[in-house]
Amino acid sequence: MSTFYLLRHGDAEGNKEEILLGQLDVPLTELGRKQAELLGKALSSIAFDAVFASDLERARHTAEAVLRHQKGGEQRCRLVLDRRLREINGGTFQGRPISEFRAYLDNLTEDPYTSVRPGGESTQLMDQRVARAFDDICQWYPEGTVAIATHLGVIKSIVRYALGMDPQETLPAIKHCSITVLEQSDSGWRLSRLNDTAHLERV
User: Fold this and answer.
1) In the chain, what is the greatest distance between 2 CA atoms, to the nearest angstrom?
2) 138-187, pLDDT tens digit by residue?
3) HSE of 89 in the Cβ direction (CA atoms, 13 Å)?
4) Closest by Cα among 88, 62, 58 to 5
5) Are 20 and 93 in contact (CB under 8 A)?
6) From CA 73, how far away is CA 188, in angstroms rounded?
7) Which residues does 7 contact at the CB level (< 8 Å), separation at least 6?
8) Which of 67, 88, 62 is nearest to 77 (CA)?
9) Which domains does the chain have, with CATH numbers?
10) Count H helices, E strands: the chain?
11) Cα separation, 55 vs 72, whole angstroms
């Protein structure tokens, strides 16, 4: 059996102001760094065979916090950065209030799933690149325990893909530094945890 821990990055610059970040490379806030440390401590008893992360700073630093709390640290397993695990490219809406993008969607006459954001990509295109990345990770680690530090949209995309859900089906919110766990066995995929934030109660 293989187990995949899907970890959303910590609170990042612009999140509190409800700015659409997309693929903008912004750092974690002080709160985000504290969240990442608590996440690492919560997962310290899990012996990961590998830790993957989006190459954007907020995801990479979250993954590094997880590695710091592994027994043996970076000697225990390696960190692999993969740009395919980035959040959706929001194009010209990146760095602007999320409310502007929501207004854009409200006035959209085409399918929002296949519609390409001006200067960016569609949700469909993001799903396709994320699926390719996840397929590769599953192939590289057919048995074992793997962490993937990434973004809200990517976590939802992986969950829907693994469980064979409609790509536009609504999922609950995925909070900062939450833990979502997918398990694969001969009988298929199972979602054993979703958006678990019990380890963040102190912040």
Assistant:
1) 53
2) 999 999 999 999 999 999 999 999 999 999 999 999 999 999 999 999 89
3) 16
4) 62
5) yes
6) 31
7) 39, 62, 63, 66, 147, 148, 149, 150, 177, 178, 179, 180
8) 67
9) 2-200 (3.40.50.1240)
10) 5, 6
11) 23
For residue 97, with 0-12 CB atoms within 10 Å meaning exposed, 13-18 middle and 19 or more buried, which class applies? middle
Q: What angle do CA 117, 137, 116 make, to 5 degrees?
A: 10
CB atoms within 10 A of CB 134: 23
Residues recognised as catalytic: 9, 87
pLDDT at 71: 84
Task: Tell me what percent of the residues of the chain surpass a pLDDT of 70.
Answer: 98
Amino acid at 181: V
pLDDT tens, 84-130? 999 999 999 999 999 999 999 999 999 999 999 999 999 999 999 99
In terms of phi and psi (left: phi > 0; alpha: psi -120 to 50; beta: otherwise), the region of 183 is beta
